């Protein structure tokens, strides 16, 4: 039996997690849909654990069995058994008992799905992404938004998540209040344009749980009296774009009549920066960051006050509006989504409380030997240890990035070469607007090249990094030196060795 309008509470049921992402999951979905049976078979979003998918979740009488490796014959046999009143468990990777009506993915005690918690990821891999019945039983937060929402956000102290957020790692309420008080019709932007392929969290939310992002975004529009909502995504993110469009249309009809549109921006790293996003939304061909102040909250899309948040931030806003206990540390309440990638069998996105250690995310992946990691995305910091709190203060205090990526690097990775690659990326991808970003990244590459030619000018590198951090117009220029400075901090001996003509790892000798 095909089910596309909601699967929560249906029994028996089979969910295909990851359906829509590849042909194999779609084949399994088709194999299970038999109109002659009473088994509800539904396509649900990804769980975030790519190595397990397509994942089959079979539910009967408040018990769910998880099957990671199954062929079409196995799916048919599974559906037949459920139709006959039996839940097969012999080949299951996990079996979990739960409330029959639950709208949250039941979590095994062990394995990748047992890592961290599932707050903003609750529906990912369990609910039909565009089903209103599966999302809060069709009761939207936006329809309940009151004037006191600013007070709620201020009391919680919620901070923005992700490099594309206008309030990255700072209290979001300040931006909301600025937008609400500014002159002109306000705009709300959901900035989901993330060209860093290792940073999967925003795409995961829009593909697997779009209402958890867009319902709070509609609530934000009501709170700041906005007339327009823009969902800004990558050109290549077809599934995220389609599901976001469907969810936005549903909300527009059920909650508010907003002028809502989807804008597909270029798959370029710079395009995710908040002010560059405004340029793309306006249709400008030359994408450059804007000088601030004034920031987007005062002068945004077409000169109007504009609230710019990532899907990750809006999902946390949804928790505040729902009255959830955010938990975590007081200075950075809630959770953070972390994608573990790099030298792993397959990447995994997990959710950690901000009082968890970053190293707890490692249990979600199978990794080879590693000597270091880059934390925070393309321009994250290099580190030998992940014994760091998963919150803004802990990460920045350790000179690491906060963009929700832990890139594990193998033992053969040369930190000097790695820093050089990231500097070269900054040189190629910066928008060219300001001298520190444009010329600074070029000088960064040249100074690192000098190391290989026998000159390690540490003082010049550190001074250049300081100037870029303090004077660049946008975050790309400010963050670009981080891989270099953290590599020098943690691997100074390797830099000295390269200046002497040798690479300790042997990677640069090949």
Short structural description:
It comes from Halococcus hamelinensis 100A6. The protein is α/β, with parallel strands linked by helices and 510 residues long. It is built from 16 helices and 17 strands.
- Report the end-to-end length measured between terminal Cα atoms: 57 Å
Give unreliable regions as ranges.
none
Please report the total strand number as a whole number: 17
Assigned CATH superfamily of the largest domain: NADH-ubiquinone oxidoreductase 51kDa subunit
* Number of domain units: 4
Q: How does the overall form come out from the CA principal axes?
A: globular
Helix/strand structural class:
alpha/beta
| Assembly state | single chain
User: Looking across the biggest beta sheet, what order are the strands in?
Assistant: 1-3-2-4-5-6
CATH architecture classification name of the largest domain: 3-Layer(aba) Sandwich
Question: Any idea what the radius of gyration is?
Answer: 24 Å
Mean pLDDT: 93
Name the beta content range.
15-25%
Helicity level: 25-40%
User: How would a textbook summarize the main sheet?
Assistant: 6 strands, mixed
The third-level CATH topology of the largest domain is Rossmann fold
| CATH level-1 class of the largest domain | Alpha Beta
Count of DSSP H/I helices: 16
């Amino acid at each position: 039996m095909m089910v596309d309008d909601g699967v929560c509470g249906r029994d028996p049921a089979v969910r295909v997690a990851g359906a829509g992402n590849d042909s194999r999951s779609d084949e399994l979905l088709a194999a299970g849909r038999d109109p002659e049976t009473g088994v509800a078979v539904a396509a649900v979003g990804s769980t975030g654990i790519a190595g397990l998918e397509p994942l089959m979740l079979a539910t009967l009488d408040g018990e769910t069995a998880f099957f990671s490796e199954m062929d079409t014959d196995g799916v048919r046999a599974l559906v037949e058994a459920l139709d006959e009143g039996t839940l097969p468990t012999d080949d299951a990777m996990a079996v979990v008992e739960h409330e029959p009506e639950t709208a949250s993915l039941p979590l095994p005690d062990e394995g990748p799905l047992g890592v961290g918690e599932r707050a903003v990821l609750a529906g990912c891999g369990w609910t039909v992404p565009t089903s209103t019945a599966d999302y809060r039983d069709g009761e939207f937060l936006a329809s309940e938004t009151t004037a006191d929402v600013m007070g709620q956000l201020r009391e919680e102290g919620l901070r923005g998540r992700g490099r594309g957020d206008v309030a990255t790692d700072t209290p979001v309420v300040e931006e909301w209040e600025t937008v609400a008080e500014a002159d002109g019709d306000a705009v709300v932007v959901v900035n989901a344009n993330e060209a860093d392929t290792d940073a999967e969290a925003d795409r995961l939310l829009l593909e697997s749980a779009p209402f958890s992002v867009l319902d709070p975004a509609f609530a934000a529009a009501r709170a700041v009296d906005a007339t327009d909502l823009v969902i800004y995504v990558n050109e290549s993110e077809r599934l995220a774009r389609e599901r976001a469009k469907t969810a936005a249309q549903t909300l527009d009809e059920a909650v508010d009549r907003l002028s809502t549109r989807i804008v597909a921006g270029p798959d370029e790293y710079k395009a995710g920066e908040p002010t560059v996003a405004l340029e793309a939304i306006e249709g400008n061909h030359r994408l450059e960051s804007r000088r601030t102040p004034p920031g987007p909250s005062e002068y945004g899309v077409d000169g109007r006050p504009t609230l710019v948040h990532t899907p990750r931030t809006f999902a946390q806003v949804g928790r505040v509006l729902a009255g959830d206990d955010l938990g975590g540390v007081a200075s950075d309440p809630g959770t953070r989504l972390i994608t573990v990638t790099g030298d792993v069998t397959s990447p995994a996105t997990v959710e950690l409380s901000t009082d968890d250690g970053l190293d707890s995310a490692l249990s979600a992946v199978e990794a080879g030997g590693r000597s270091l990691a880059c934390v925070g995305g393309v321009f994250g910091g290099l580190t030998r240890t992940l014994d760091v709190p998963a919150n803004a203060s802990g990460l920045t205090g350790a000179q690491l990035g906060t963009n929700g990526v832990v890139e594990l690097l193998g033992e053969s990775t040369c930190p000097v070469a790695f820093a050089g690659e990231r500097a070269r990326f900054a040189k190629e991808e910066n928008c060219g607007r300001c001298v520190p970003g444009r010329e600074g990244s070029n000088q960064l590459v040249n100074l690192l090249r000098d190391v290989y030619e026998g000159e390690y000018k540490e003082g010049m590198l550190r001074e250049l990094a300081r100037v870029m951090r303090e004077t660049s117009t946008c975050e790309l220029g400010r963050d670009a030196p981080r891989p270099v400075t953290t590599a020098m901090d943690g691997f100074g001996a390797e830099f000295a060795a390269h200046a002497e003509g040798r690479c300790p790892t042997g990677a640069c000798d090949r």
